[in-house]
Specification:
The complex is a heterodimer of chains A (372) and B (322). With 372 residues, chain A is of the alpha/beta class. Chain A is 68% helix and 9% strand. In chain B, 33% of the residues lie in helices and 26% in strands. The radius of gyration of chain B is 23 Å and the shape is elongated. The chains are: A alpha/beta (372), B alpha/beta (322).
C-alpha cells in the first residue's frame, strides 16, 4: 500500500511539474500575496489630502496648519475661502479631510473667551480607513500642539484646551458597514462574474464538448458571446439581490441615481466577464482557470482600495490600481451610493471600465482561434 | 472530383510529428476505413480534416471547399464524431439532440421528425430523458452519432466510434453506418478493429504519420508475402518452437486454437512438407489447412516489416526474417 501511495505521489509530482500554469500559481501567487500584504500592513494611512478653511488667520492657526502638513499622514493641499468650497472639495473626493479653524480659535485657545477652542474636522466617511485614521491623526497633532504651546503644566493648570469636533461626511453615524457593504457588493459580483466566465470555455475543453461545438455552424463571436452571456446574467442577478439586501436589510442609504448604479454595474460585469473569458480561453483545465482567478482576485482586492485607500499605496501599486476594474468600480459605487455622485463626477472610472470591457473581449476573441 | 481530398497534410506537436504528409482521395459515397496502431496519427488527421485543428502544411478540400481557409463553409455538410464522448453529460438524450438541432438551424416540424427518426435509428426512444452521462458506452456512441447526423451531413468523419463498445452494440452501430452508406453519405472511419475495417470499401493503413498502403480489404490481404497455413493442435507452444526450424518459415502467431504459419510462396505442397517436418520433430496435431490471411495479419505483417526496415538488417528478429 505504501509503495502504491509513493507511486501515486510520484505521478502527481510529475504532473505538477508539467503543469506550467499551476507552477506559476504555486510560486508567484504566494510571493505576491506576501509582498503586497506585508507592505500594506506596515504602511498604514499616508498622505491624506487635507483642505483647511482657516477663519482665524492668526500665527497660531498657521502654526497648527503647518504641523498638520508636517505629519506623514496628511498633506494640506487646499485652502478654500468658503465653507461651501471645502464641502465641494470633499464631495468631489479631492480632499479626504476637511479642517475648519473657527475665527475665535486663538482667543479660545488661551482661555480668553467663554468656551474652550474648537476645531471642526470633516472626514470622508465613505472611506472607512480615511475616516478612522484621519480623526486619530488630527487628535495626535492637537495634543502635540497643546504641549508645545502651553507646556506640560497646561493640563494641570487647566490653562487651555482644544476640542476636536469630528463630523463624518456622508456617513454621520460613522457606521463601518456603510463603507464595507457597498464594497462587498462589488467584490462578490466581481467574484461570481469572474469565476463563472473563467470556467465557461475551459469546462467545454476539458469535457471534450468544445471539439463538437467547433464543428457546428457557431461562429467565433457567437461562441464567445454565447459563453459570456450566462456569466453576465448570473453576476448581474447576484448584484441586484445583494443590492436589495444591503439597502433593505442593512439600511445603507442610496444617495445617487439607481439607474447610474445599474448602468455602471452592468459595464463592470461585462468588463470582468471579458477577463474571465480570456482566462478560460487561455487555460486547459478548470483547475488551472480557478487557480488563476484566485490569483487575480487577490491582486485586485489588494489594489481595490478596500484594504488600503489607493491614495496611500506606493506609486507602483497606485499605477496598477488604475488597471483594476474592481478598484474603479468600488470607488464608483461608494461615490454613487454614499456621496450621491453623478455621471460627470465619475466619468473617468466609467470610461476605464468601458475600456477594460472592449480590450478584454478583443483579446479573448483574437486568442480564441477556432483551431484548438 | 473526390468529395474528401487532401494533399501532403502535415502536423507536428512540438518535436513529435503526428501526421507526416498524408494524401487522401475519397470519392462521393465511399466508405473508407483508416486503421493503424495507437499513435499512428489517425485522430490528428481526422481533426484536421474536420477543420478543428490547423495543419502545418498541406491542403484539404471537402466538396470543393478549402477546409483550412474556410472551415465555416463545410460545417453544414460535415458530421464529426470525436473519439472522446463529446456531448453534455448533464443534459438528457433529447436535450442534446435538441441543442445540436438548434445550432444547426433545424427547426419546427423538420426538427421533430428528424429527432424521432434518429432516436428510432439509434434505438434510444426509451431513453430520451436519461442524462447522456448515464448511458451505457454503446448508447453514448449511438447518441453521439445521432447528434452528428442531425443536420444530414454529406460527409461523416468518425474517430474510433466503437471503441469500448460491446460486440452487439458494435454490430448495431455498423448496421447504422451501412444504412448511411447506402444513402450515399461519404464516410471516413478510424477503427482499431479489423473486422470493422473489412466492412469498408477501402482501407488505409496508417503508421507513424503516413498512410503506408490503401486498397480494398481483399487486396490488402494479398500484401502478405507467402502463404498462410493454419495448424490445429493441442500443444501450440511446442508446435510454435518446432515450426521456426521449418525451411521456408517466415512468421507465425497463435490464433485461438490454431497456429498461423507463414511460409515462402515457392514451396510445393507446403501443407505436406510442414506435416512431415512436425512428425519428424515427434509432435502430433489434428490437421493443417491452407488459409487466406485475415486483414489483421496483413496489418501486423506490414507494420512489423516497416519497423524492420527502419531498424535495418542485422537487428531483425528471426521470426520476421524474409
Amino acid at each position: 500500500m505504501f509503495i502504491q501511495i509513493l507511486n501515486l505521489t510520484w505521478k502527481e509530482l510529475i504532473q505538477l511539474r508539467r503543469d506550467r500554469f499551476l507552477m506559476l500559481f504555486l510560486i508567484v501567487a504566494p510571493t505576491l500575496q506576501l509582498v503586497l500584504l506585508s507592505h500594506n500592513a506596515a504602511r498604514g494611512v499616508r498622505d491624506l489630502t487635507v483642505a483647511v478653511l482657516d477663519l482665524d488667520q492668526s500665527n497660531l492657526s498657521r502654526e497648527l496648519v503647518a504641523m498638520v502638513d508636517n505629519t506623514r499622514e496628511m498633506r494640506v493641499l487646499y485652502h478654500p475661502r468658503h465653507r461651501q468650497d471645502l464641502e465641494q472639495l470633499i464631495a468631489d473626493g479631492l480632499a479626504q479631510v476637511g479642517l475648519v479653524i473657527p475665527p475665535s480659535f486663538t482667543r479660545d485657545f488661551y482661555r480668553l473667551g467663554p468656551q474652550p477652542a474648537q476645531l471642526q474636522a470633516i472626514l470622508d466617511g465613505s472611506n472607512l480607513l480615511v475616516g478612522s485614521n484621519g480623526g486619530r491623526v488630527l487628535e495626535g497633532v492637537v495634543q502635540r500642539f497643546i504641549a508645545d504651546h502651553l507646556g506640560p503644566a497646561a493640563e494641570a493648570l487647566d490653562l487651555g484646551g482644544v476640542e476636536v469636533v469630528t463630523t463624518a461626511a456622508f456617513n454621520p453615524a460613522f457606521d463601518y458597514r456603510w463603507f464595507t457593504l457597498p464594497s462587498m457588493l462589488v467584490f462578490i459580483t466581481y467574484q461570481v462574474a469572474l469565476v463563472v466566465a473563467a470556467t465557461g470555455f475551459v469546462r467545454e475543453k476539458e469535457l471534450g464538448t468544445l471539439e463538437q461545438l467547433i464543428v457546428t455552424p457557431l461562429r467565433r463571436p457567437e461562441l464567445i458571446i454565447g459563453k459570456a452571456l450566462p456569466a453576465v446574467v448570473v453576476a448581474f442577478f447576484n448584484f441586484l439581490v445583494l443590492y436589495a439586501v444591503i439597502r433593505l436589510g442593512y439600511g445603507v442609504p442610496m444617495r445617487g441615481a439607481f439607474a447610474l448604479l445599474v448602468g455602471t454595474s452592468l459595464l463592470f460585469v461585462l468588463a470582468v466577464v471579458a477577463q474571465g473569458t480570456l482566462v478560460s480561453v487561455l487555460t486547459h483545465t478548470q483547475q488551472q482557470a480557478v487557480l488563476i482567478v484566485f490569483l487575480m482576485a487577490i491582486l485586485e482586492v489588494t489594489l481595490s482600495g478596500y484594504l488600503l485607500p489607493v491614495e496611500n499605496m506606493p506609486l507602483v501599486m497606485r499605477g496598477l490600481a488604475q488597471v483594476s476594474a474592481l478598484q474603479h468600480h468600488m470607488t464608483l459605487v461608494r461615490a454613487i451610493i454614499l456621496r450621491g455622485a453623478t455621471l460627470p463626477m465619475i466619468g473617468g472610472h466609467v470610461l476605464a471600465l468601458a475600456a477594460f470591457a472592449v480590450v478584454g473581449y478583443a483579446v479573448a476573441w483574437r486568442t480564441f482561434t477556432r483551431s484548438l | 472530383m473526390s468529395t474528401l481530398f487532401c494533399r501532403n497534410l502535415q502536423r507536428r506537436f512540438g518535436k513529435t510529428v503526428a501526421v507526416a504528409g498524408v494524401d487522401l482521395d475519397i470519392a462521393a459515397g465511399e466508405m473508407y476505413g483508416l486503421i493503424g496502431p495507437d499513435g499512428a496519427g489517425k485522430t490528428t488527421l481526422l481533426r484536421m480534416l474536420a477543420g478543428v485543428l490547423k495543419p502545418d502544411a498541406g491542403t484539404i478540400r471537402m466538396a470543393g471547399v478549402d477546409v483550412v481557409r474556410q472551415p465555416e463553409r463545410v460545417r453544414s455538410l460535415l458530421g464529426y464524431m470525436p473519439q472522446r464522448f463529446s456531448l453534455y453529460a448533464d443534459l438528457g438524450v433529447l436535450e442534446n439532440l435538441l441543442f445540436y438541432a438548434d445550432i444547426f438551424g433545424v427547426r419546427g416540424a423538420e426538427r421533430r421528425q428528424r429527432i424521432e427518426r434518429l432516436l428510432a435509428f439509434a434505438r434510444l426512444e426509451d431513453f430520451r430523458d436519461r442524462p447522456a452521462g448515464q448511458l451505457s458506452g454503446g448508447m453514448k456512441k449511438k447518441l453521439a452519432l445521432a447528434c452528428a447526423l442531425i443536420h444530414r451531413p454529406r460527409v461523416l468523419l468518425l474517430d474510433e466510434p466503437t471503441n469500448g463498445v460491446d460486440p452487439i452494440s458494435r454490430r448495431e452501430f455498423w448496421d447504422i453506418l451501412a444504412d448511411l452508406h447506402l444513402e450515399g453519405v461519404t464516410i471516413l472511419v478510424t477503427t482499431p478493429y479489423m473486422d470493422e475495417a473489412e466492412r469498408c470499401q477501402r482501407v488505409g493503413l496508417m503508421h507513424e504519420g503516413r498512410i503506408l498502403r490503401q486498397d480494398t480489404p481483399s487486396a490488402l490481404q494479398t500484401w502478405v508475402p507467402g502463404r498462410m497455413l493454419a495448424v490445429y493442435a493441442g500443444d501450440l507452444a511446442a508446435i510454435a518452437a518446432a515450426v521456426a526450424s521449418f525451411p521456408g518459415h517466415l512468421d507465425h502467431h497463435t490464433y485461438g486454437d490454431r497456429l498461423h504459419v507463414f511460409v515462402a510462396p515457392d514451396l510445393t505442397d507446403p501443407e505436406a512438407a510442414l506435416a512431415e517436418h512436425l512428425r519428424a520433430c515427434g509432435l502430433s496435431f489434428r490437421q493443417i489447412l491452407s488459409d487466406t490471411p485475415r486483414l489483421e495479419e496483413a496489418f501486423i505483417h506490414l507494420i512489423a516489416h516497416r519497423e524492420d526496415e527502419s531498424i535495418r538488417a542485422g537487428a531483425r528478429l528471426p521470426s520476421v526474417e524474409l
